[in-house]
Specification:
7 helices; Rossmann fold
Length: 196
């Protein structure tokens, strides 16, 4: 997954009228600046758009809305396997009369622009999105995006079997499991006596 474009509204420290962050054509980016300027919020916006999680948790939606605002929205364009996608996640703050509400749309770019490929529920759309991105939030935060103060999660907090699973997922090693299974099945098929 390669981020291409990020648009925020009322997300964490970012209010309305935030310029779009264009990343297309930038192979490597460095976020630098003083503490508290919103560098981490940009990365958290991407994880919230993709997995509905930020700050290492999935149950923070209301806490991520800019103070005083009633809703927020993050739109992220990204590329995966030579295809461009757009994910739009919105959340409205809970009120005394209704719980907070999250809307998630997933779109794929085609010759006529973007069209929705979202499921009928947020959960179903998140499953489709995980299949496209091919990594879950826990794997991402343990490998590619180390949260501040959690830089040793991969080396000390995970059991060896969990580290092996994460590495296999990151490197796409399940392909080799599939090939080994096919080779085993083919070997067993060839060992069987021919019925003729």
């Amino acid at each position: 997954m390669v981020p291409l474009r990020l648009r925020l509204r009322n997300f964490m420290c970012y209010r309305e009228e935030v310029p779009v962050l264009e990343l297309e054509g930038i192979p490597v980016a460095c976020l630098s600046g003083e503490n508290g300027n919103g560098k981490t919020a940009l990365l958290e916006a991407m994880t919230w758009a993709l997995w509905g999680a930020a700050r290492g948790r999935k149950d923070l939606d209301d806490d991520l809305i800019f103070v005083g605002a009633s809703d927020m929205e993050v739109e992220l364009d990204f590329a995966a396997r030579e295809q461009r996608y757009r994910v739009i996640r919105k959340h409205s703050r809970a009120t005394p009369r209704r719980p907070g509400q999250t809307i998630l749309d997933l779109q794929i770019e085609g010759p006529d622009g973007f069209r929705s490929i979202a499921g009928s529920t947020v959960r179903e759309t998140e499953r489709i999105l995980r299949d496209i991105v091919r990594i879950d939030y826990d794997t991402f935060k343990s490998s590619a995006f180390l949260l501040q103060g959690h830089d040793d999660v991969f080396t000390s907090d995970l059991k060896p079997t969990e580290r092996k699973r994460l590495l296999g997922e990151m490197l796409g090693l399940e392909v080799y499991d599939t090939l080994a299974r096919r080779a085993r099945d083919e070997g067993q098929r060839r060992e069987r006596p021919d019925p003729d």
